From TrEMBL:
<dbReference type="GO" id="GO:0009055">
    <property type="term" value="F:electron transfer activity"/>
</dbReference>
<dbReference type="InterPro" id="IPR024935">
    <property type="entry name" value="Rubredoxin_dom"/>
</dbReference>
<keyword id="KW-0812">Transmembrane</keyword>
<keyword id="KW-1133">Transmembrane helix</keyword>
<keyword id="KW-0472">Membrane</keyword>
<comment type="similarity">
    <text>Belongs to the rubredoxin family.</text>
</comment>
<dbReference type="InterPro" id="IPR050526">
    <property type="entry name" value="Rubredoxin_ET"/>
</dbReference>
<feature type="domain" description="Rubredoxin-like">
    <location>
        <begin position="11"/>
        <end position="62"/>
    </location>
</feature>
<keyword id="KW-0408">Iron</keyword>
<keyword id="KW-0249">Electron transport</keyword>
<feature type="transmembrane region" description="Helical">
    <location>
        <begin position="91"/>
        <end position="110"/>
    </location>
</feature>
<keyword id="KW-0479">Metal-binding</keyword>
<keyword id="KW-0813">Transport</keyword>
<dbReference type="GO" id="GO:0043448">
    <property type="term" value="P:alkane catabolic process"/>
</dbReference>
<protein>
    <recommendedName>
        <fullName>Rubredoxin</fullName>
    </recommendedName>
</protein>
<dbReference type="Pfam" id="PF00301">
    <property type="entry name" value="Rubredoxin"/>
</dbReference>
<dbReference type="GO" id="GO:0005506">
    <property type="term" value="F:iron ion binding"/>
</dbReference>
Amino acid sequence: MARPLDSDPASHSYECRSCGYRYEPAEGVAKLGIVRGTPFSTLPDNFLCLVCRSPKAAFVDVGPQNRPSGFTQNLNYGLGVNRLTPGQKTILIFGGLVLAAAFLLSFYSLH
């Protein structure tokens, strides 16, 4: 049986509801001395948003950083594209555009 996507809460990202800043546990915050891999739940209670200075209570759990985007029940559709992370989808889209442009420019080399 497959593990659920949200299986490890310590790896979840948290987003500030006021300004949209995201705390990523995998990255930490070097400016504040918070090392990589520090879960949001272990941050001090006086932790403030780096952008708007909102308190820790203003952050909401948005799930794992590299989870596939979209609804869980739809992940098995779409020829596997629905299982890609947002970053992978971006690379796929812009990679396809660059490839199409390269093919279009290659027609100039034909006589």
